[in-house]
Design brief:
The structure holds two protein chains of two kinds. By secondary structure, chain A is mainly α. Chain A has helices at about 1-35, 40-60, 60-85, 90-115, 140-145, 150-155, 160-180, 180-190, 195-200, 205-230, 240-250, 255-275, 290-305, 315, and strands at about 280, 285. In chain A, helix 1 (about 1-35) packs across helix 7. In chain B, helix 2 (about 40-50) crosses helix 13 (about 300-325) and helix 3 packs across helix 12. The chains are: A mainly alpha, B mainly alpha.
Chain lengths: ~325, ~375
């Protein structure tokens, strides 16, 4: 029972950790499937977390936070499109510029607005209730004492923020958009063979702007989840590499929604283990928590080296312009 | 109707300056929003960075770091490789420098220790670039992604080493022991004091001389050696280079080893010259900023030295703003981001309008002189 309970706790944390990664990885998927490298996920998470928390505090509503956070990341995603699509700028340089701007702007503006060292005020303090609250699924309380089921249903499945459930709903939704709609087909085609798309009379630029619009919306959810749901506050640099980790998950998932989700869950699990494994001895060796933390990055490098299956970026393989089977 | 040529002074002069001006205007708008008069801010940045020996010391100290991290980007870029791993390479370079100083400091004279620590910085930085290089050369893995991943792996590794091995027993903060004073790279103000010249104390140290030597050496390497020629030819047309008999995987690996070594040298300045111990996050985004510096300097060592001076000014002048206007110190990061955005990602935005403007002007002048010729004849 002891073991069962700690497994439930770890899996519970896994879901929570994976949520921002899933949103960001799906966001990156639209951008990269359309042929635009997106290392700017990190900065967009930070931007949306900041404007989300600020708006939630200002309006006293988490929903306004969600709206403004998503709007802010959409603006930056369109800036990315402006640089890379309209002006043929280097994707990596543009992404870096956005990441660096995000770090600076959130800290400087945050300090100017709130005078709290770049933090926003706490969203769940005293009179302020501007934070998303966890959702209790029906009968969670009644079932809490039932063995096994109580643990799984009441602890693991119930009591998460709305955005956690939305993240897992977004996976099939994004799959549907990407693989079953005309827009998705165009996005994939533009990423594989823009010339063919152009010949077919479809605007490559417009498709890419729209793909980056999707990116902005989805990554906005990731940022708002961090600041308005989990910590109820923005603090400088709170994205802490999650954007890069989502990028790693995207590559790990071979640019497919479901596989990317599994990669995010794996990374979320590693994060949960890292937090709990401080000083844990495994097979007579103390497992360094830093090694667990670094595992997603190491796995990605190993994968990129082609040692555990190949993961080739859409535009590089130049898949033929046909409907893909998933 | 011959194609008009765009003169070099437009490409390397007017366009970059215009881009920086646009970045400055955008920054000015941010300043206005933060209730700071941009002109006053510029003035206090200039006087903060260049108005005193103290200011100059910090500006040149930052410049030294930027020269190394920017050269690490530029050399790789000449080969068509985007090295985002300067952050990790400099961090691991710091491990090399630190181990040499901790192990040999006080036991061997400085004149013996210094070459060893220079070699250690280079070797450790280069080794950290070797795996992404080999994966790129032999397995085709994208170097941008692998070097990003290696930055994170370096951070975890250094964190582990500091906590478990380098942190002295009984101390709370996660940093190594302070090196023996005999291993410190002398500060410039100390050297000047020997000659009776007084200069305010600053972290500026002799590493700046090494930075200038290295910048010159990189120029010689790239434009005056066979290896440099191979690197540049792979960068400008890799299929032609392969046809010409150049072993591309070997050149890729060589390039990244040089780049990693250059990034590693940054540790000499920060660790052996200033902090005298290995600290967490000592690279402090300078690896990323190096990309901006390299862009500004057009990936040429001479341009990079100038651009490093400008970024040293931004860094030091920006921290002065913090005291003067109680603005967050990371306002500097906004400035850097805008420079990267406008002179990197949006560098073509102004290129075509300016070139068109010049061509129109040149055509009008030509037709005017043609008419003159016709009239004379």
């Amino acid at each position: 029972m002891e073991l069962f309970n700690s497994i439930i706790v770890i899996l519970d944390a896994t879901l929570r950790n994976a949520t921002p990664l899933i949103f960001a990885a799906l966001a990156g998927m639209f951008s990269e499937r359309s042929g635009i490298v997106n290392i700017a996920l990190e900065g967009k998470i930070l931007i949306s977390a900041f404007f989300g928390a600020s708006a939630a505090y200002y309006f006293g509503s988490p929903w306004m936070g969600l709206l403004c956070g998503v709007l802010a990341s959409v603006v930056f995603a369109q800036l990315h499109a402006f640089a890379t699509v309209t002006h043929n700028g280097d994707h990596v340089v543009s992404g870096l510029a956005i990441n660096i701007l995000a770090i600076g702007l959130t800290a400087a503006i945050g300090n100017y607005w709130f005078h709290q060292g770049g933090n926003t005020p706490n969203l769940a303090f005293g009179e302020t209730h501007a934070r998303f609250t966890p959702i209790k699924l029906p009968f969670a309380d009644q079932l809490a004492d039932v063995p096994i089921i109580g643990g799984i249903y009441s602890e693991l499945l119930s009591g998460h923020y709305l955005l956690v459930y939305l993240a897992f709903l977004a996976v099939p939704l994004c799959w549907y958009i990407l693989f079953r709609t005309r827009f998705g087909l165009r996005v994939r085609a533009v990423g594989e063979n823009p010339h063919a798309v152009d010949t077919a009379g479809i605007s490559v630029a417009k498709t890419r702007y729209l793909a980056l619009l999707m990116t902005g919306i989805l990554v906005g959810f990731a940022g708002v989840y961090l600041s308005v749901a989990v910590t109820a506050q923005f603090s400088p640099n709170m994205s802490a590499g999650k954007g890069y980790m989502a990028l790693a998950a995207l590559i790990f998932g071979k640019w497919r929604p479901r596989s990317a989700m599994w990669a995010c869950l794996l990374f979320g699990l590693l994060e949960a283990i890292a937090i709990r494994s401080q000083g844990v001895v495994f097979l007579g060796v103390e497992v360094p928590v830093q090694l667990v933390e670094a595992t997603p990055y190491i796995l990605t490098v190993v994968l990129l080296g082609g040692f555990i299956g190949r993961s080739v970026a859409p535009k590089v393989i130049g898949e033929p312009y046909v409907k893909e089977r998933n | 109707m011959s194609q008009q040529r765009i003169p070099a002074w437009i490409t390397v002069g007017v366009i970059p300056v215009t881009n920086v001006l646009i970045a400055a205007i955008a920054a000015g708008l941010v300043f206005l929003y933060l209730n700071i008069n941009p002109l006053d801010a510029l003035q206090s940045m200039v006087s903060g960075a260049f108005g005193s020996g103290y200011g100059w010391g910090y500006t040149l100290y930052y410049m030294t770091s930027y020269i190394f991290t920017a050269l690490a980007v530029a050399v790789a870029f000449k080969c068509g490789l985007f090295n985002i791993g300067g952050e990790g390479q400099a961090y691991i370079g710091a491990l090399g420098v630190g181990l040499v100083c901790l192990g040999l400091g006080g036991h061997v004279p400085f004149i013996v220790l210094l070459p060893i620590s220079i070699i250690a910085a280079a070797v450790f930085g280069a080794l950290w670039a070797l795996i992404p290089a080999a994966l790129q050369a032999y397995r085709g893995s994208h170097i941008v992604i692998t070097t990003i991943m290696f930055n994170f792996i370096a951070a975890s590794l250094m964190n582990y080493l500091l906590v478990y091995f380098l942190k002295p027993v009984g101390t709370m903060s996660v940093e190594s022991a302070v090196f023996d004073a005999a291993s410190w790279i002398p500060k410039i103000h100390e050297i000047l004091a020997v000659f009776g010249i007084r200069m305010a104390a600053s972290p500026l140290n002799l590493t700046i001389v090494w930075a200038l030597i290295v910048a010159f050496a990189v120029w010689v390497f790239l434009w005056r050696t066979r290896w440099g020629y191979e690197i540049r030819s792979v960068g400008s047309n890799s299929s032609a280079a392969r046809y010409g008999g150049i072993n591309i995987p070997r050149v890729v690996i060589l390039t990244m080893l040089v780049a990693g070594a250059l990034a590693g040298f940054m540790a000499l300045n920060v660790v052996q010259g200033q902090a005298h111990q290995i600290k967490l996050n000592l690279v402090n985004q300078m690896g990323f900023t190096g990309i901006a510096v390299a862009l500004m300097g057009r990936n040429h060592p001479f341009g990079i030295v100038l651009a490093s001076l400008m970024f040293g000014f931004l860094t030091q002048g920006g921290s002065e703003l913090q005291f003067e206007y109680a603005v967050d110190a990371r306002i500097v990061v906004v400035l850097q981001g805008l420079v990267i955005l406008f002179s990197g990602a949006l560098q073509h935005m102004m290129k075509h309008p300016i070139e068109r403007l010049y061509l129109n002007y040149a055509r009008r002048r030509n037709s005017a002189s043609d008419e003159q010729h016709a009239a004379e004849a």
